[in-house]
Every structure is written in C-alpha cells, then in structure tokens.
Write a structure and sequence with these properties.
Number of helices: 15
Structural class: alpha/beta
Largest sheet: 5 strands, mixed, barrel
Strand content: 25-35%
Strand order of the largest sheet: 5-6-7-9-8
Oligomer: single chain
Mean pLDDT: 87
CATH topology of the domain at 3-132: N Utilization Substance Protein A, Chain:P, domain 4
C-alpha cells in the first residue's frame, strides 16, 4: 500500500465520521511520527508534510554533515561526510542533508500497522466526542428510536446512529414500547465501560418530569415559576411544589393550564401518572395541608426534633390522605421532609374503641407503627378492614395479619 492510497482511504473514513481536517492531519502526523521513532529512535530531525486532500506524504530526514573522524558522527542528527557524498557528491561539511524517506522504507508490516492505528485513533476520537456530547446533555430530554428490546433494558438509536440504553429500572412500570417507537427520556448519566461510552437514559427521574413541565409551561422555562421540589412514584403519582415571585402569576393555574391542557400533555407522556401541583409555602401547617390534598386536615402537630408530624382527620378523610396504595401520604412525607402519622378524630360513638398502643404487650411495636403509618390507630379501624385490604395496605405477612385480627377480635369478644 503506497502513501497516497493509505492517506486517501484514511481521509475518506475520517470524513465519514465527521472528523474535521485539522484533527485528521494531526492524527496522521502523530501516527507517521510514531513509525519514524520506531525505526530511527527519534523523530526530532524529521520533517513530515501531509496533504490529506491530495493524498500526498513527504518525510524528510534532516542531518548535519560532520567530518568522518568527528566525535559527533554517531549522533542521530549527524551524518558522516562520506555518507553524505553518496547522496549528493557536492555536499560540504557543515551543510544539512535533506534525505527523503519513502513509506516503503518502513516495511509492509509497519504500514499495515499504521493503517490499523489510524482507524483505531478515529474510533477512539469518535468515542470521546460521543462521551463529551452526552456528558453535556445529562439532565436534558432526548428522543430516540427503539431498535432492540431486551429483558433488562431497551436499546435505542439517536439521530446519528449512536446507541442509548434505557434500563428496566429507569422505565415507568406501564411503559410498553415496540421496535420503531420514538421514546422521550432524560440523559441520566454517561459511563465508560472498557473504553466505550454507555449512555443511560431515565423516564423515572424527577428531573424528567421537571423538563416536561419546562417544555409545556412557558413560565417555568422562562423562570417566572420555580419548581421547588418534585417527588414521584413513577407511573402512579407525583407531587410538584411550585412557587412564583410574581404576584400576578398563579403558579398552580399556569402549570395546569386552561381545562388542564398543559398538564394533560405531561400526564400522557408519563403513562397517566397522577400529578398534584402544589403551591409552595414556608408555613409548615399549610404546606402539609396542601401536600395531603384532596384530604381535609382537621389539625396538625409537628415535632421539629424528631421530624414527625401528627395529622388528625375525620374518619372519612383518612383513606383520602393515605391514597391508593399509600402513595399520597408517602409522597407528601417526602415532599415536606417529615414523617407523617395519620390519626382519626373519634366521635362519640367511637369512644369505646381501643388505641392500638394498648396492645403493645401482645403485638410488636414495629407492627403497631406500620399500622399507624397507614392511619390505623385504633382496634376498630383495623377490624373494619378485610384481611386482604390490610395485607395490601401494610405489606405485612398474612400470618401476621391473622394474628392481629385474632388479638384485636378477642378484645371485643370479651
């Protein structure tokens, strides 16, 4: 393979990878200088000229002519007078010899190695460019097409043919994609695995929901409305605390839009995730009340030291506060940063009920705590449920639930 063919084939490959001309020339020169160092020990006294467009390569070895008896005759940048006269008879001592080195002088094996090195350098450069590109896009929404569905992840392809990964853990549980579908997600992180960039996407991150709001709500994008915090149970429910420093703007109304037009677009993208938009406030009691919506709170007692809040509600409001699957109270706790304990206000007909703490000698305290977290603070409130409902709400073992019903039931049988 001569120099022209080598350079032209490399240049064509580099251009197909969108490598700019200065970078292409730099890589070519680096590789040829590495060849020179391997054969001649140094490249300091070599001049390399490359014209990638024409496929031209010129390598000149530059040496100073010294006397045949000179002590410097063994220096790499020196040549004896006798050797120089073989190149050009009229050379004189002290002059410089420019000796052209043909590519063939390096040997066929060295040229083949150079070709492989050039291709590998471009591939490495391509990986670095891809890593840098997506490193800057971390936290931003991208769209890509599904091209392979695996058990633990979905592989997608961006517009430039780069592979992106959407792991199962970063998918909404209700997501169902087919090959060829276009998927929206945020760039969650970019890892390097054995020198190859791995671009990990996410649809479960709170940041994904935040970016969707920025796309649908101009006031959020422009900074007129600030998203203070987002908590999510992906695909089920989310709570978004928003605030505006402009009194003329209703942050909740702006995010929801006329007849829900803005938030509906977000909800559809998130597989009908139920989104509560809440007006942020420094008033803790009011913030808790808003976070537990749609339940109506009767009274609140907060403990700053233990970061726990006791919320009292009428019996018909307890299930609303807890929400389906307990998501409402879980998300409210995470949004506020306090553990919320729900208590029912007892009316006169319920005064004969017994507080669960009375059973601490028979029921482990951690089980009582689990029951209280779901708003079950009395014996009758527990017994009013079926065993299946209690198992689902608390995630306790069936044997444990049976024992709870037995102990509480005995109290009223007596």
């Amino acid at each position: 393979m001569d120099a022209k063919v080598l350079i032209e084939s490399f240049a064509e490959f580099a251009r197909s990878k969108n490598v700019d001309r200065p970078t292409m020339i730099r890589i070519l020169e680096d590789v040829f200088r590495a060849m020179i160092r391997k054969k001649f020990e140094t490249d300091e006294n070599f001049d390399v000229t490359i014209n990638a467009d024409q496929g031209d390569l010129e390598i000149f070895r530059i040496r100073e002519i010294v006397d045949d008896d000179s002590e410097d005759i063994w220096d790499l940048d020196k040549i004896s007078f006798a050797e120089a006269r073989k190149i050009e008879p009229d050379f004189e001592i002290g002059e410089e010899v420019y000796e052209k080195i043909e590519l063939e002088a390096f040997g066929r094996r060295a040229v083949q190695m150079a070709r492989q090195t050039l291709i590998q350098r471009i591939k490495d450069l391509e990986k670095d460019i891809l890593y840098s590109k997506y490193e800057e896009l971390v936290g931003e929404i991208v769209s890509a097409e599904v091209y392979q569905i695996l058990g633990r992840e979905i592989l997608l392809m961006d517009g430039d043919g780069n592979e992106l990964i959407l792991p199962k853990a970063e998918q909404i549980s209700k997501d169902r994609f087919r090959k060829g579908d276009t998927v929206k997600a945020i760039v969650h992180r970019v890892d390097m695995s054995n020198g190859n960039p791995k671009i990990i996407l996410s649809r479960t991150s709170p940041i994904f929901l935040e970016r969707l709001f920025e796309n649908e709500v101009p006031e959020v994008y422009d900074g007129l409305i600030t998203i203070i915090k987002i908590v999510r149970e992906p695909g089920e429910r989310a709570k978004v605390a928003v605030e505006s420093y402009d009194d003329r703007i209703d942050p909740v109304g702006a995010c929801v839009g006329m007849k829900g037009s803005r938030i509906h677009a977000v909800v559809r993208e998130l597989q009908n995730e139920n989104i509560d938009v809440i007006n942020f406030t420094e008033n803790l009691d009011l913030y808790v009340t808003r976070a537990l919506s749609p339940a109506k709170v009767s009274s609140i007692t907060a403990n700053e030291e233990t970061k726990r809040i006791s919320v009292f509600l009428k019996p018909d409001q307890v299930s609303l506060a807890i929400g389906k699957g307990g998501y409402n109270i879980k998300l409210a706790s995470r949004l506020i940063g306090y553990e919320i304990d729900v208590f029912r206000e007892l009316n006169e007909s319920e005064e004969e009920d017994v507080d669960l703490r009375e059973f601490v000698d028979e029921i482990d305290s951690w089980i009582i705590d689990e029951l209280k977290k779901t708003g079950l603070d009395t014996a009758k409130s527990v017994l009013s449920l079926t065993k299946e409902d209690l198992t689902r709400r608390t995630e306790l073992e069936e044997e444990t639930v049976d024992e709870i019903f037995r102990i509480l039931g005995q109290e009223f049988d007596q």
